[in-house]
Structures are given as structure tokens and as C-alpha cells.
Amino acid sequence: MSRLAIFGYGSLASPESAALSLGRPVEPETVVRMRGWRRRWNAYRDNAAVEKTFALGDGTVPPYVVGLNIERDAACEGANGVLIEVTEAEVERLDLRELRYDRVEVSADVVAQGAGRPGFDEVIMYTAKAVHRMVEAPPGAIVIAEYVRTVEAAFAALGPGQLELFQRTTDPPPVEPSEATLVADRIPEGNPRRW
After folding, report:
1. Is 48 inside any structural domain?
2. Residue 144 lies in a domain
3. Which domain, by its residues, includes 178?
4. How many domains does the chain have?
5. 185 vs 109 pLDDT, higher one
6. How many CA atoms lie within 13 A of 76 on its CB side?
7. Quick check: helix, strand or coil at residue 79?
């Protein structure tokens, strides 16, 4: 039977976030790097028109929320992250969670950290659809500070040097992270999106 894994390069590197998305307890299988890929804060969404709306402390609803993405970059030393074994049914759940991202097959780009090779037949990850990628942050866009903290804590927990490698292989956010509160949650039934 073939084994399938997803590469978690952002919030899915957090076992808690991955567990919410997959509906089961999750422990990352393997810490790896993705050769020729770099993380960027360039995935954006219309904050008022999508399934979750966030507001700043003063009640202002920012027009856009910016999130992490991963893109090909031959000059990058290779973004780090985790492989999590998934089933085909769980991939369907992830497709719903990552509705602004395309699923791509990246098995050939996986580089193991340390000894051995990951034992997966196929590795997938999600990269932002062209319509949801930005060249520069639109006016009023925010990066949610809690999201940044969650991702950085997940990489710090992966072991020595992993947070530093995350920072080296990730462009800085285009705007200063902002404290924001979820004010509307319209996630459709079956969609496990949590941020």
C-alpha cells in the first residue's frame, strides 16, 4: 500500500493545528526541507467577504489578511517543514481547508534532515492560487499576530535551529503583525479551516 504525506510549512507544522484540520491526533513524521522552495507572506484574502472575518482592537475591519505561501525559488537553501502521513480522505479535507491554494506534488523536492529518507511514495503541499497571490501588500492589509506566533512556536518545537532556518527561508511579513480578533465565522460544514 502506498504512503502519502503532506508537507507542512506553516500552521500545519503545529500538531494542534494539523489535528484540527485532520480531525485526529497528529505527530509530525519527519522534519525535512523542500529543495528549491521559499516561504513568502504573499497569500491574501478579502477579510470581509470570506469565511472568517477579523477586526482590530478598535473594531476596524481590515480589508485584507495576508498569510504564508510557498513558491519555487532555486536560490533558496530549501524551506523546512514537516511531513505528516495522510489518507486520501484527509487530503480531501485539506483541499477544503486550503481553498485558496492549489495542491501540488513535490516528492522529488524532499530532502531529509539527518540520516535516512522519508518513507513516503508521494508528498504533496499547497501553494497559493495566482488569484490569491500578491506582489505587494494592498493598503490596509494585516498579518495576524496570533498566526505568526503559532507558526513560530511550531518551528521552535521541531528542534534546535529549526526556527532560525524557518526565518532564513521565509521572507519577512510585508506589514507589522497586528492583534486581531475573529468577529465572524462562516466556515461551511465540513471545512476544517482554523485560522
Report:
1. yes
2. yes
3. 4-185
4. 1
5. 109
6. 23
7. strand
The beta strand positions in 59-172, using DSSP E, are: 64-72, 79-86, 101-105, 110-112, 122-128
pLDDT at residue 153, as a whole number: 96
The set of cell numbers assigned to 189 is: 460544514
Amino acid at 145: A
Name every residue whose Cβ is closer than 8 Å to that of residue 96 and which is 6 or more positions away in sequence: 188, 190, 191, 192, 193
Using one digit for the tens of pLDDT, what is the confidence trace for 135-155?
A: 888 899 999 999 999 999 999
| Residue 88 resides in a domain | yes
CATH number for position 127: 3.10.490.10
For 14, residues 6+ apart whose C-beta sits below 8 A from its C-beta are 150, 151, 153, 154
Kindly state whether residue 8 falls inside one of the protein's structural domains.
yes
Distances (CA, A) of 110 to 81, 124, 149, 184, 193: 10, 10, 26, 38, 26
Instruction: Show the cell assigned to 6.
Output: 503532506
Percent of the chain residues past pLDDT 90, beyond the cut: 66
Task: Please provide the average confidence, as pLDDT, over all residues in the chain.
Answer: 88
